[in-house]
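Example record

One chain of 92 residues, shown exactly as stored in the release files.
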Amino acid sequence: MKKDVTEAVKWFRMSAAQGNDVAQYSLGVAYANGYGVNKDEQTAYGFLLLAMDGGNANASPMLALLEKTLSPSEQEAARSWAKQQKLKIGKR
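Predicted structure tokens for this chain:
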């Protein structure tokens, strides 16, 4: 099963890089829970910000949960990362 999850994360990454909000949300969930990747709530927050910005309504409740565990500086770092990713997506 682990290989399947790792393979799914690979495909989500490719889709997320193209601006797919479902893939961005899925990566946020994966990083928040450590599914197929090392658990990283800051990275999860960044992907969920991208998903929300892309119109994914499911991202909002997850963001609210992560805001309770991340420090303001971690949240700001994730926002900065998400902004950079959004610029990269826009250039494609």
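Notes: The two ends are 33 Å apart (CA to CA).
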